[in-house]
Predict the 3D structure of the following.
Amino acid sequence: MARSHSPSRRAAYVLAGSVITTVVALAGCGSPAAPSAPAPGSVTVPEGTLVQDGQITYCSDISAPPLTFYDAAQTPVGAEIELGNALAAELGVRANWANTSFNGIIPALQARQCDAIMSQLYIKPEREVVVDFVPYMYASNTLVVASGNTAINGVDDLCGTKAAGQTGTTVVGYLTDQSAKCTAAGRPAVDIRQFTKDSDALQQLRLGLVDCYGTTLETAAYVMTQQPGTFRLAGEPFNRIKVGIALRKGEQALHGALTEALAAVQKKGMYTAILAKWNLTGDDISLAG
């Protein structure tokens, strides 16, 4: 089950300049327990709803910054971690993070190794057959340019430019379609440079060999965090797809509680603040798809 627009996204994150402590991903290996008596939340979870009363356990592949990763102290951090913790607080329960291989993450949920999946799981029809979703953000593509590049401010400015991307990704398909539009309008095509690794495409931009680099917004956000002031996003994100918290089919009580908790987090401004902190404002679920 691919979770990203790019088949080697995690490699791109590491090679983009991040140094992430190697973690053995074992299903059911959670983060250290939070205080035993969390404050009462704004949303009530009926007794017996969770695998363990007083605690919501999220299955998550904690290896995808800026969404989920481990810091130097081996503490789970990232945008999804913060959002999941905020939801737990609204439910008045502890948040426990079970680091789970993405390939087995839905079976782990079905085996009751966790209460919910929060791991950039795309909402697709084939997945909706086996799990229920609470949508909470988008995943999307974006264009990255050098911070001093004022000529490219969106896809309409790409005609006649050099653009890099990873072979086989949706962003390359998007660039190809845009190039066809350019030539149909009598303008120069987009010179698309494809690379087997997303990090190699980024390197082309870093060296000034291309004018822009297409990737996921999530990868771009982390690159910009690691190399502040070097790059900027050009235009609005595109190729948006909804991401959701996955629950076992038919668990209406938990589905309703998490939906209410998300609404509360959004109303308090915490949702917006979390996305802004991690440069993911373009993935706000309230934006048009």
Summary: The longest strand covers residues 131-146. The radius of gyration is 20 Å.
